[in-house]
Amino acid sequence: QVQLVESGGGLVQPGGSLRLSCVVSGVTLDYYFINWFRQAPGKEREGVSCISISDGSTDYSDSVKGRFTISRDNAKNTVYLQMNSLKPEDTAVYYCATGGLGCSRYQDYWGQGTQVTVSS
Questions:
Q1: Which of 12, 31, 91, 114 has the highest CB neighbour count under 10 A?
Q2: Which helix H or strand E contains 88, and what residues bound it?
Q3: pLDDT in tens, 49-60
């Protein structure tokens, strides 16, 4: 069974940084993707970033490109989302997910989410 556990969220001031972690277990495929999503209250779920576990290729939404960096540590079964230059509009619950066909909103397995709040 596949499990994903996010951590690293918290309260930061605008311009600050956070690093989120997603620990993945139960995946037996060599080729799969990890996606980060976020959802703010009253808003649609938004794809943030994704990474290929096999070759490390990445993708980002326009809203975070240049500020966020996704990376992987395959030895630790962990994917990270380094978030810099945070803005209040980044406030949301952040989820990692996998089990889809690649980098898309259609995923089979989701973590519980971690809250990120950007406020002065």
A1: 114
A2: none
A3: 999 999 999 999
Q: Distance between CA 100 and CA 37 in Å, rounded? A: 13
> Helix, strand or coil for residue 101?
coil
- Which residues lie closer than 8 Å to 91 by C-beta, 6 or more apart? 40, 116, 117, 118, 119
Q: How far is CA 77 from CA 33, 35, 59, 73, 81, in A?
A: 12, 14, 19, 6, 14
- Would you call 90 helix, strand, or coil by DSSP? helix
CA pair distance 78, 16, nearest whole angstrom: 23
H/E element holding 39?
Answer: strand 33-39
* 11-61: pLDDT as tens digits: 999 999 999 999 999 988 778 999 999 999 999 999 999 999 999 999 999
Distances (CA, A) of 47 to 26, 39, 111: 23, 9, 14
